[in-house]
Amino acid sequence: MSGQDTHRLAGILLLSASIPLLLWQAFPANQLTLSAPAFLAVHSMMEIFAVIVAALVFFTGHGVQETLRSIRSVALGCAFLAVALFDTLHFLSYIGMPDLVSPNSPHKAILFWLCGRLAAGIGLLAYVLLPETPATRVPASRYGWMVVLLILGSLSYGLLASPHAIPAMYVMGEGLTPLKVAFEWGVFGLYLAIAILLYLRRARITHCDFESLMLALLLMAAAELFFVVYVQVSSTANLLGHTYKVFAYYFLYRAIYAEAVSRPFRQMRHMLTHDDLTGLPNRAAFGERLNQSVLTCNEAAPCTVMLLDLDHFQNVNDTLGHEYGDLLLVAVAERIRTSLPSAAFLARFSGDEFVILLENTSAEQAKQVGQTLLDAMGREFDIGNDRLGIGASIGIVSYPADGESASVLMRYADLALHRAKSAGRNCFRVFSHDLSEEIQRRVLLEARLKQALEHKELALHYQPKLEIRTGRLMGWEALLRWQSAELGMVSPDEFIPVAEHTGLILPIGDWVVREACRQMRAWQDAGLLAGTMAVNLSTRQFRQKDLAEEVSAALRDTGLAAGDLELEITESSIMDNLATAATVLTELERLGLRIAVDDFGTGYSSLSYLKSFPIHCLKIDRSFISDIPGDDNDTAIVRTIIALAGSLGLTVVAEGVETDAQLAYLRAHYCDQAQGYFFSRPLPPDECIKLMRAGLRRVAA
Fold first, then answer.
1. What does the alpha-carbon distance between residue 437 and residue 418 come to, in Å, rounded to a whole number?
2. Contact (Cβ atoms closer than 8 angstroms) between residue 559 and residue 504
3. pLDDT tens sequence across 503-519
4. If both were cysteines, with which of 147, 311, 516, 699 could 391 make a disulfide (CB 3.0 to 4.6 Å apart)?
């Protein structure tokens, strides 16, 4: 049973017990009498507790930030300031306490008692009836407690100085007077009426514990009934009434003070564990929930994690703005939530990534959920006046089949998501152990690649480019190689994507440019006719703002003429951001460099950049060369590219030439240059020198 349920049950039991206790104490013969000193000690402790709670309620209404303070909490606070004062004077007026202004008596103590009960009732009635209006709208409310203190001070002094000006409430030897009994019944009716109003207005009562407040009112009402039946001041009936009042104040403390104090901490925890934009649990909250699930799930009751990432979400931010992007994220979060089983735990993992935990769900069952999500994401979103469509990719991983800890599961889910994106996006992929081997290999590559430059494990090999018509050497393309001391020879197809992902491509790329320039200058100084040196630029290199400065510094430091360096850039790098590409290419042209478009024909269909940008060369991708002259489609594409380059005055280079038939076809259609294994594989520098000295003309023949 939760703590809240335990307190609720305790309150209900106390309330239920009041009925038999009242029936027992309704007969004077059943009322036991305590000694005056014992009753005074117990009574004083109870009243001190009541005074402390009343003061806490007052400070709750006036101690919080002004922006959070409401009129009704201020009214309740002022009322319980009065309660605290009256209850203090009440127990100080008991016989046995030092006389306060006038001789103490039961009548005098009862007067302050009734004032305190009426003040509490009025305050609680105001709390239930008043709206949750910010106190800042009524500036005078901040001084209300001063007015209350002035009124209380005057009234209290009058009652202390002349208590007998009020008709008697208690007669020694006879007990309570009808007037006192009538007042107690009136207070009982007031508390009961407030409880009924609280129930009727429960939807409007916020920032308090409704159930604790209801129990406090009912226990207060029950306490009043004990004060109707007692005969002797020190009787058990009076003591039970005070006991019920103490319990009532405890629940009042829970309802208002404890709630108000804990609310900021709950709000802070909510802020720490939830996403501001979508209202979903955040990454930290998901990690905590996943760790709990890992402790309880097993093979008979597995759990599954689904990592969902929106496809090309950045395009929405770039084209429509971040405001639309945020609105789309909120709509996506809501659609995902409504598409999931009710027991699923959904969180926003990062920018446009969402993560889902499905307990008691196998990977096969998760596939059905994944397909439901993809179908839901296939419907367009109404964002403002626009209808936006966006896909999603999902990675699925299961515990305990796939991983032994929460961190491992999330790493594997990310790998499965990456595989889904590689498969064409808008699909889901389930983790398999071959992906585990892949990720371990990737982590190892990342770690070792960071040391490769420092340990001089990277090297450049060079592949020659020949003029097809004459067989003359026109230049070289620098190709990166990695000979790892631990891993052996690592293929560029494997380590280049890792370098791109980690950002290591930037220092590696800078080294490649400098080393290629240095090597070309060394060949020139040796009297070799080496032609030009071509260097591939990655997309991340091309996006550097200071790319032109870095290349210029490499040329200057190595002494290579700008016209002897050619930079190869893919179509996708250029088309990724046309404005930036235009600026970078213009800066590179000013240096006097040659610019080649690598892998031409595999990227975008737009050809407008060819006439707009300073481009000197097109390289036909090897995928079009491999099947010529047998494939009609490839031959048509190759002929078109050659014709296009010729009409624009661009040099055209065919990559991947491996057969005599391919070379003959290219020669017949006036392709300018070629490179490939038909002529030479990429060679280390020493073998390049041998090849140049032997005469590439003879090799080509």
1. 14
2. no
3. 888 889 999 999 999 99
4. 311
Q: How far is 515 from 521, CA to CA, in rounded Å?
A: 10
How many angstroms separate the CA atoms of 462 and 675, rounded? 11
Where b means 16+ CB within 10 Å and e means fewer, 124-156 reads bbbbbebeeeebeeeeebeebbeebeeebeeeb
Q: How far is CA 660 from the centre of its chain?
A: 59
Q: Shortest CA distance to 617 belongs to which of 488, 477, 519?
A: 477
Measure CA 358 to chain center: 19
Phi, psi of 475 (to 5 degrees): 160, -170
Name the residue among 490, 373, 381 with its Cα closest to residue 420: 373
Q: Residue 681 corresponds to which tokens in the numbers above?
A: 């594989």
In angstroms, how far is CA 519 from the centroid of its own chain?
50
Are 375 and 397 spatial neighbours (Cβ–Cβ below 8 Å)? no
C-alpha to C-alpha distance for 65 and 45, rounded to whole angstroms: 32
| Partners of 399 in the β-ladder | 303
Q: Render pLDDT for 41-52 as a digit per residue (tens, 0 to 9).
A: 888 888 888 888
**Looking at the chain, how many residues does it have?**
701
Query: Of 244, 238, 226, 184, which Cα lies nearest the Cα of 26?
Result: 226
Helix (H) or strand (E) holding 604: none
SS3 of 365-424 = HHHHHHHHHHHHHCCCEEECCEEECCCEEEEEEEECCCCCCHHHHHHHHHHHHHHHHHCC
With contact defined as beta carbons under 8 Å apart, do 509 and 567 qualify?
A: no
Could you tell me if 114 and 77 are in contact, meaning their C-beta atoms sit under 8 angstroms apart?
Answer: no
* Euclidean distance between CA atoms 422 and 368, whole angstroms: 21
Chunked mean pLDDT (size 10), the chain, 701 residues: 68 87 85 83 84 79 56 79 85 80 83 85 85 60 65 76 79 78 88 89 75 87 85 83 86 71 60 82 88 85 91 79 86 91 89 90 88 90 81 90 83 86 84 72 81 86 92 91 86 85 86 93 90 89 84 92 90 73 84 86 61 83 87 88 87 91 91 91 91 65 50
Using the Cα atoms of residue 646, residue 651, residue 654 and residue 655 in order, give the sign of their dihedral: negative
Q: Residue holding tokens 């003959």? A: 664
In the chain, what's the furthest Cα-to-Cα distance? 136
CA distance 354 to 335: 12
Alpha carbons 426 and 679: distance in angstroms, whole number:
43
Show Cβ contacts of residue 281 under 8 Å, excluding neighbours closer than 6 positions.
Answer: 273, 274, 275, 289, 345, 346, 347, 348
Phi and psi based region of residue 123 (left: phi greater than 0; alpha: psi -120 to 50; beta: remaining): alpha
Map 250-275 to HEC letters: HHHHHHHHHHHHHHHHHHHHHHHHEC
Q: Where does residue 606 fall: left (phi above 0), alpha (psi -120 to 50 degrees), or beta otherwise?
A: beta
The token pair that represents 42 in the structure block: 């117990």
What's the confidence (pLDDT) of residue 262?
A: 60
Q: How far apart are CA 310 and CA 516, in angstroms?
A: 40
The 3-class SS string of 163-230 reads HHHCCCCEECCCEECHHHHHHHHHHHHHHHHHHHHHHHCHHHCCCCCHHHHHHHHHHHHHHHHHHHHC
The first and second tokens of residue 229, run together, are: 């039946």
Give me the phi and psi of 101, to 5 degrees please: 70, -55
- Surface-to-core class of residue 233, CB atoms within 10 Å of its CB (0-12 exposed, 13-18 middle, 19+ buried): buried
CA distance 533 to 128: 84
| Residue 640, token pair as written in the block | 């078109």
Say what the pLDDT of residue 354 is. 93
Q: What is the pLDDT of residue 137?
A: 53
